[in-house]
Design goal:
- Pfam families: PilM_2 (PF11104).
- Helices cover 37% and strands 31% of the residues.
- The chain is built from eleven helices and 15 strands.
- Strands 3-2-1-6-10 form a five-stranded mixed β-sheet. Strands 13-12-11-14-15 form a five-stranded mixed β-sheet, sandwiched between helices.
- The model has no long low-confidence stretch (mean pLDDT 89).
Amino acid sequence: MFERSRTTVGLDIGASSVKLVELEHGEGGVRVLHAAEKALEPETIVDGEIMDRALVVEAVRSLFDSRAAARRRVVVGVHGRGVIVKKIVMDRMSVQEAAEAIYWEAEQHVPYDIHDIALDFEILDVDKGPKQMQVLLVAAKRELILNLAEVVREAGLVLEAVDVNGFAAQNALERGAPAPGGEVSALLNIGADITNVNVVRDGVPLYTQDLSLGGHSYLQSIQKAYHLSREEVERALGQTPRRLDTTAQLEAFAADLSASLEKSLNCLRSSGEADQVGRIVLCGGGAQIGGLAAALGRLQGAPVTIGDPLLGLSREGAGAPGDELARSAPRFAVGVGLALRKERAS
């Protein structure tokens, strides 16, 4: 019997836009059916929290209607200050026992009322020490998840699952271009106002953090330097040749990213988990800031590349034209990872 093809949809609700990725999973592999994006007005979403739900609902509804995505069940992602990811050490126990004990453990590690958060966990190492195991604890404020669920429901969709944006980006990037065994990689998903930092080795997160730093920070520094509106800056940056010299602003933005990443790496060095990063991979809209990868590479002394979440996926018949989709691929890393979530779990 031939396995029937199935589809999954990742819905990435970010600060500057909403992105949809629909994938078809079949015997021949995974194919991109649709990949589309709808811009949001500034301040619609701030630090991962929805400020104007009606605008987001309309953007999501418009995106699905215009692309005629067949599947109405979606996987969404969360990030920002309402999401906490920590590695903790617990007494060794079964998964069932850990599911009960994790709430008590979370009270010791999460700065929110235990009744106000949703919890998940994954056992990373069952032999971390004498009768101990290492667990990845993920906590998200229930209000954050409920707001996303309401957006999905009001847009006429069904919420299938919730993932963490940083993990979704990792899933997409490492599927197409896995790191060599044992190498430590720093994956940076640079969004409009938040950068997801995920330092991983052999697919296991070593350190995860969301930074209040993104592409908007870069644009705002140019606005301030040249006394321009954001629209004027975006228009000027799109011109060829450019009429603005943004070298100073680019170097400052790269320095901020590098300093934040260095703090993460120092935590790993002090814990003895990793000495150095073998590669840095960028994705998200901010990854496409001209010259950023090179500037960050100089500061970190490590190779920096722009990740392609569509590697290994068939793009034949995708909603966006081939060249356009290839150029914008880094922006869809989270959406692809969310749509791949079922494949990862299977």
